[in-house]
Amino acid sequence: xxxxxxxxxxxxxxxxxxxSAFAATIQIINIDGPGxxxxxxxxxxxxxGNPGTTVGQQRLNVFLQAASIWGSILSxxxxxxxxxxxxxxTCNATSAVLGSCGPRFVETGAAGLExxxxxxxxxxxxxxxxxxxxxxxxxxxxxxxxxxxMQAQFNSNLGQTGCLTGSGWYYGFDHNHGALIDLLxxxxxxxxxxxxxxxxTSGSTGQYFNGPPQLPALWDKxxxxxxxxxxxxxxxxxxxxxxxxxxxxLVWDGQQMNFEAPRFLSHSPELVVPFGGGSLPGNTATFGAxxxxxxVTAQAxxxxxxxxxxxxxxxxxxxxxxxxxKIAVIDRGLCNFTNKVSNAQTHGAVGCVLVNNxxxxxxxxxxxxxxxxxxIALSQADGTSLKTAIAGGPTTVTIRLSPTQIAGLSAGGHIxxxxxxxxxxxxxxxxxxxxxxxxxxMEPAINPDLTSSIDLTDALFRDIxxxxxxxxxxxxGGPPARVALANNPNPARGATDIQFNLATDERVxxxxxxxxxxxxxxxxxxxxxxxxxxxxxxxxxxxxxPVAAGxxxxxxxxxxxxxxxxxxxxx
Length: 571
Prior knowledge:
The structure is a single chain. The chain is of the alpha+beta class. It folds into three domains: 2-196, no CATH class; 267-406, Glucose Oxidase, domain 1 (3-Layer(bba) Sandwich); 481-569, Immunoglobulin-like (Sandwich). The chain is 16% helix and 28% strand. The protein contains nine helices and 33 strands. The strands form nine sheets. Strands 17-16-23-19-20-21-22-18 form an eight-stranded mixed β-sheet, with helices on both faces. Helix 1 (55-73) packs across helix 3 and helix 5 (255-264) runs antiparallel to helix 9 (457-464). The longest helix has 19 residues, at 55-73. It is globular. It starts with a strand and ends with a strand. Residues 6-22 have low confidence and may be disordered.
């Protein structure tokens, strides 16, 4: 069953990206009108590897570069089409919607889907089924609809007066964006949403996508609430609504992510304090000195300026003499984070604690190479506790990395998903949490230290089926192990048994190749059940002849699994 989420009605100009047979082809469909968006004729000098000579051409080149990056990572026999436009989006002088991308259709029940009773984003569904489920001219489509898979729109006013004034897009490919916003990173982020990094379930109401039928999203199969001990495809609508704002307890628990996240993420920032449990969790800033396990220890002092709100350090600090050699405590307020910390550093502060002025956590962003002191950000509640302690007498604290906690992992050891309270439409549930360190591509804010890496998005895409899975559950349960082929005996003479373990029921093929890459024999092809398998090879090639002595390659390739193994044959 297919449902149309939204239709963009405009003439399309197709710009195609060709990729290798082992990747995916992603096409950018330019739906902008003459003289605007991708067709903006304003002259521009080539920048950062982008050869475009107009603003419009540079914008299109960035989209093609993002398509090339994702195309080289993913694998699909079906071309992925993205209807794309630059248009004015919501913004003001200090904040802006940068862009958005999502599926135009969702699918359920198509033959070949790994999980048939879930809503799939269109591009992933086509990949799993192996055919275009919305070809042009399909009678289920609205008249004139080209059946493209995703729709993307980006802010054409960014950087203009009244729209994040003073900023703007950087069109280079080298991430040397300075104070500008790296368009390539933002497009990579938004394309991930359109490919599958989001749910069709409403986070604000908890209601499944209203088909009919009302079914969970594929996303919901892996979204887990550690308080309820339920996945989103198991709990009630009311429970999902509560879970969407269950800060620090909404997690992703796919096997691939569970394995990769602890190995990728770093130690958690924390503020060691002389009260409560002895430490307060925090987030790092994108500027300032790197936090260390040893940390910086000093007395905490509340910074004061002469204008309300008096503790945000946006105006000249009036108690600067007290900050020398101390850790400044500053409220989030009405100026840039870098301005606050720079003001404190100028007065000799050796560290800075930024306290949220609203409920929830945050990650201070900005760029200022002159800031050389460590910075940590606390929630409003934890900041209030710290201020209470300071008011009661001298309070010595340490800004450091926790020796035991991993930034972005929950108490249960899963990666946290973004679930602040109050609910933030468009951000909650469908992003990694801002506590993750290093910063991740799929956090709700684009951090300036990001590059073209898809970091832990790789593991999540393995969980939902975009990429081959690297893990499998051993027979009888227990912790997952890396998917691997093995054969016994090895070296082999006369015959050998090849073993592997599948995480789920899956269509696979096990084949033997010689060292030159020539196919020798297909040993099995078809759908196999989850669990361990043993395939016997008698040492014969496809023509029934004994193979020569030497090294051979066994390759297991399936919808979600890919593995290779060298075996030695002796005569």
